[in-house]
């Protein structure tokens, strides 16, 4: 064991402690995957990241991302949170205004604009219709009739998201899903607001088999939803997604388009700085 710098940051909320927390272990050289996984499970947060020297030319750092049960090739709020923690610890990007993160999914650009950061949505590794038997099972997990699902698509960009579109934000907020029926499914649900408020859509994310069953605010899911809703002409960037409302969070995810690419952004606040023995 040795003492390593440690941070916790709050991602996707302008109000500190109302977004999605992320634990970040700096200088993680020498830790095995088993040690990383054990610590990630111990933090009891949706994700924990470990920062390492880059192995790809041009990258500013390399990150490994763990939930309480597995390593992910990519995840959204850990990307923004890791970039903020790296910058707060004295990191200086090679390219002015853009951090280039290396992860198992490849190189992810992160734009820095004050307290706000945004990552370029990675490409899908699976994108397309969900077969009818699985869609009926998804409806059962969500506790709704199959007919209430207007559309659905695989949105796999690291996590194995199944995107589900409902008719309204109110329907999304009223969901009472059953985690006992979810198995290993990862389900993201979206519905529009009718009024012109601060958010255009409401999003909820459910991760079967994970200790954190409902994720407070989810970057990878919103990246997939942003591409899907744009491709199907349901929504056009820029728009703002609200997430975490039923968990007393105030998540706000900003979806924009730049040079044909979807970008996912939000405010990131440093909350805890210290050391950890690992």
From TrEMBL:
Record-annotated membrane-spanning stretches: none
Matches recorded under Gene3D superfamilies:
Diaminopimelate Epimerase, Chain A, domain 1 (3.10.310.10)
Xref: SUPFAM superfamilies: Diaminopimelate epimerase-like (SSF54506)
Instruction: Name a GO CC annotation attached to this entry.
Output: cytoplasm
Where are the active-site residues found?
A: 47
GO function terms (MF aspect): isomerase activity
Name it: PhzF family phenazine biosynthesis protein
């Amino acid at each position: 064991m040795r003492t390593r710098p440690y941070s916790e940051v709050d991602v996707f909320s302008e109000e500190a402690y109302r977004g999605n927390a992320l634990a970040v272990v700096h200088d993680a050289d020498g830790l095995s995957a088993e040690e990383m996984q054990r610590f990630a499970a111990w933090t009891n947060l949706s994700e924990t990241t470990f920062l390492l020297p880059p192995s790809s030319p041009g990258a500013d750092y390399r990150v490994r991302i763990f939930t309480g049960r597995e390593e992910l090739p990519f995840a959204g709020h850990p990307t923004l949170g890791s970039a903020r923690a790296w910058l707060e610890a004295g990191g200086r990007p090679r390219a002015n205004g853009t951090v280039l993160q290396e992860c198992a999914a490849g190189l992810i650009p992160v734009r820095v604009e004050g307290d706000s950061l945004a990552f370029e949505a990675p490409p899908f590794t699976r994108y397309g219709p969900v077969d009818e038997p699985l869609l009926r099972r998804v409806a059962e997990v969500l506790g709704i009739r199959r007919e209430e699902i207007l559309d659905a698509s695989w949105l796999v960009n690291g996590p194995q998201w199944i995107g589900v579109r409902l008719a309204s934000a109110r329907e999304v907020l009223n969901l009472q899903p059953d985690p006992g029926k979810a198995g290993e499914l990862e389900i993201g649900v979206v519905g529009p607001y009718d009024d012109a408020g601060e958010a255009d859509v409401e999003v909820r994310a459910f991760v079967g088999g994970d200790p954190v069953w409902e994720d407070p605010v989810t970057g990878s899911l919103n990246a997939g939803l942003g591409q899907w809703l744009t491709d199907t002409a349901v929504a056009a960037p820029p728009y703002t997604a609200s997430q975490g409302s039923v968990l007393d969070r105030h998540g706000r995810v900003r979806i924009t388009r730049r040079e044909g690419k979807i970008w996912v952004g939000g405010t990131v606040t440093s909350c805890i700085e210290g050391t950890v023995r690992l």
